[in-house]
Amino acid sequence: MRIIIDGDACPQRVREICEEAAKEFGIDLIIVVDIDHYIVSNYQIIVVEQGRDSVDYKIVQMFKEDDILVTQDYGLASLVLGKASAIIHTSGFFINKNNMDSLLQSRYISEKVRKQGGKTKGPSKRTKEQDENFKKCLYKVLREKSWNKPKSKIREP
What is the CATH number of the domain that holds 44? Predict the structure, then answer.
């Protein structure tokens, strides 16, 4: 099991939470970004060429059974859904087979509105509640799925 982060639009606090969890549980963490992003981490960073969906293609290529994906991209999430131990949106909710159709539908509608010159709601300012929800989701999966005991006592988020 590894945590793989779609790093192009990932909030810094989400990366920090993932790094803390990877350290506690002794699992690998991989951050995938394109060349336009500068990220510093003690964990593996994979940098790919700039291009539409280049990060997504790399993640799909390297994704293994039982990995955890952290992303805001519903299209990418749909491509690894069958393999993933969990897919966690950076806002702090699970992306799964129960909500995938509605998430993809909302993405499609928003894209259609934008193509017709309309405006859709952009990202809002990140809240502490989103950070807490994200951490709860991640730690829930790690406690349920981890084959190894954590290196230190697990703190409840």
Answer: 3.40.50
